């Protein structure tokens, strides 16, 4: 097993003139080849050594996705350092905690907002010696520029030792999203990452001709491994999206073949497509749903190992060209498949995209497993499951239904937290994930929910929150939902409406209002959400159904620390913030 830098330089020798990292600059997509990238990596690594970086010291990265992120990460490891990515959405206080806990000696920072955060805490960061800024116009006194480190590396005579690196050594400390309590630093070795890359690409092949559009934060282990180390290992090209808001435009411009995503993004695309179809002319609407039906029949027949008649095939192909191809063009038109992780994906949405000709490969993993544990294959998959275990990764279910994992991808432990490590990682290598699930007869894994997040009602019923929330969010009027009910008599929910759709509803019903809160208090609006909740949860058991709800006037956000970088709910934060609304639902309130 080799190290991450040696894997990178090996790829450079195989694909020297191929674009590796591509970003938009002055309105144009501009790429740097594998060879050019390797020069930047060498010079930056040598510059770090000249600045006094010693083996095993930590280099923190606080930046949105961009070519420099990958350059700094690879350079840190090439200089025998350990990279520590930091989510840009974290507060200054959380960033301070990570920098202090990791003992980072060097910090690479990009973006005015991130620099402002660092300036507010700089005087308290006693171990931080060097701050390297990407952009000169944001440089503050005492900071170095990225280009200055590159120039320093060009003239110094420091020797890099990446060829003799030990795969067992720590490559990175990745801090968990911290849905509860302070984030923990997950130590991940070169072997953890690269064994996962190797096994994942055997399960879902990546080729050198592939192009990735990167928009999930590189500070999260899913994008790091699947959207960066994986394409790097195969000589593929990585494009960096300008922002999530410009994702649609960037998809059409870049035309990626692979997209790493989270379910919430697919949900939003699904809602936009259906909304556009329903607002269109009757004939177009009829053609769209006819095309979906034809493709659904075709896929159903294939899964059963039978063939449709010639006429049915011709009809499906014609409708695909007339309808589905145009929808795919809106997503670039060249997607071989998309990868979904970070949370559970609705069966309904997975089938919808398959019928459009876009295969979503859903998998499961954790930061502690670098991250992939299981994944559906392109030709062997089951909607509603997170797939089969990767090669050389063992999965078993404990008596209390907790998912246990063992393999080369499992972390050696948490940084400076031996007690927490001992609680989840046994001496024989089995890691307790904290997730509940079950394996079917074919070996496909189904996730029930997080052990700590399972709701146990006052009547003793177990309710997994995610499936209920996912179903609610399929309503075009519901943007976000968080269900509540632990040790309560019934399930309730905080609902964040889709405000644009709600405004349209108000206009149609001629409901006048001065502000959103006034609109949410309207009886017709309350009745609308009663109907939507009842409709979306009609297939659920009675004890899982939402009996009362509260409409929230502000979207849950990462900035308010209500969401993780992969858009998971920070339940404790939201519950505390809306404690008054929650208590009201269990006293009077309105409900179903």
Beta-strand content bin: 15-25%
Q: How would you classify the quaternary structure?
A: single chain
> What percent of residues adopt helix (DSSP H or I)?
25-40%
Structural class based on helices, strands and sheet pairing = alpha/beta
Query: What coarse outline follows from CA principal-axis ratios?
Result: globular
How would you write the strand order of the largest sheet? 4-3-5-6-7
Helix run count: 20
> What radius of gyration results from the CA coordinates?
25 Å
Give the beta-strand count.
26
Largest sheet: 5 strands, parallel
Distance between the termini: 58 Å
Which key terms come to mind for this protein?
single chain, 592 residues, alpha/beta, 5-stranded mixed sheet, 26 strands
Structural commentary:
- By secondary structure, the protein is of the alpha/beta class.
- The protein has 20 helices and 26 strands.
- The strands form seven sheets. It has a five-stranded parallel β-sheet with strand order 4-3-5-6-7, with helices on both faces.
- A hairpin with a 4-residue loop joins strand 17 and strand 18.
- Helix 2 crosses helix 6 and helix 11 crosses helix 13.
- The chain starts with a helix and ends in a 7-residue tail after the last helix.
- The model has no long low-confidence stretch (mean pLDDT 93).
């Amino acid at each position: 097993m080799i190290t991450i830098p040696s894997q990178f330089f090996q790829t450079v020798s195989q694909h020297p003139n191929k674009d590796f990292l591509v970003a938009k600059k002055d309105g144009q997509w501009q790429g740097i080849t594998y060879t050019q990238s390797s020069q930047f990596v060498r010079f930056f690594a040598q510059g770090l050594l000249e600045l006094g970086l010693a083996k095993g010291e930590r280099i923190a990265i606080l930046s949105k996705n961009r070519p420099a992120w990958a350059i700094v990460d690879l350079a840190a490891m090439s200089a025998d350092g350990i990279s520590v990515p930091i989510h840009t959405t974290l507060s200054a206080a959380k960033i301070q905690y990570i920098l202090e806990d990791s003992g980072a000696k060097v910090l690479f920072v990009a973006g005015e907002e991130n620099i402002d955060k660092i300036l507010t805490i700089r005087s308290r960061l006693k171990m931080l010696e060097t701050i390297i800024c990407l952009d000169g116009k944001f440089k503050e006194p005492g900071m170095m520029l990225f280009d200055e480190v590159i120039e320093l590396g060009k003239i110094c005579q420091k020797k890099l030792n990446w060829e003799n690196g030990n795969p067992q050594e720590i490559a990175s400390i990745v801090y968990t999203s911290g849905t509860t309590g302070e984030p923990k630093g997950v130590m991940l070795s070169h072997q953890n990452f690269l064994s996962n890359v190797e096994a994942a690409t055997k399960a879902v092949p990546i080729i050198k001709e592939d192009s990735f559009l990167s928009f999930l934060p590189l500070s999260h282990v899913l994008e790091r491994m699947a959207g960066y180390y994986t394409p790097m290992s195969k000589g593929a090209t990585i494009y960096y999206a300008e922002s999530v808001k410009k994702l649609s435009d960037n998809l059409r411009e870049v035309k990626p073949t692979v997209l790493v995503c989270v379910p919430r993004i697919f949900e939003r695309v699904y809602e936009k497509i259906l909304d556009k179809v329903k607002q269109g002319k009757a004939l177009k609407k009829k053609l769209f749903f006819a095309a979906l039906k034809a493709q659904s029949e075709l896929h159903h027949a294939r899964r059963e190992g039978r063939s449709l008649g010639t006429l049915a095939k011709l009809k499906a192909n014609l409708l695909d060209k007339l309808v589905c191809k145009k929808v795919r063009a809106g997503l670039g038109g060249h997607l071989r498949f998309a990868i979904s992780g970070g949370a559970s994906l609705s069966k309904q949405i997975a089938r919808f995209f398959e019928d459009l000709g876009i295969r979503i490969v859903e998998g499961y993993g954790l930061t502690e497993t670098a991250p992939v544990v299981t994944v559906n294959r392109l030709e062997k998959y089951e909607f509603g499951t997170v797939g089969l275990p990767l090669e050389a990764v063992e999965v078993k279910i404990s008596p209390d239904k907790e998912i246990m994992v063992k393999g080369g991808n499992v972390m050696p432990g948490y940084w400076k937290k031996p007690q927490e490590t001992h609680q989840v990682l046994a001496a024989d290598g089995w890691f307790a994930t904290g997730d509940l699930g079950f394996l079917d007869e074919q070996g496909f894994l189904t996730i029930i929910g997080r052990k700590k997040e399972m709701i146990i009602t006052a009547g003793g019923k177990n309710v997994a929150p995610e499936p209920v929330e996912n179903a609610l969010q399929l309503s075009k009027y519901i943007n976000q939902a968080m269900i509540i009910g632990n040790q309560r008599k019934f399930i309730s929910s905080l609902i964040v409406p889709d405000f644009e759709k709600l405004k349209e509803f108000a206009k149609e019903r001629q409901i006048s209002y001065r502000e959103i809160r006034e609109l949410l208090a309207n009886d017709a609006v309350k009745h609308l959400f009663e109907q939507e909740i009842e409709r979306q949860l009609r297939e659920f058991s009675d004890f899982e159904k939402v009996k009362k709800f509260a409409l929230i006037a502000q979207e849950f956000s990462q900035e308010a620390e209500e969401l993780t970088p992969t858009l998971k709910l920070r339940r404790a934060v939201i519950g505390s913030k809306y404690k008054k609304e929650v208590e009201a639902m269990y006293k009077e309130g309105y409900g179903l």
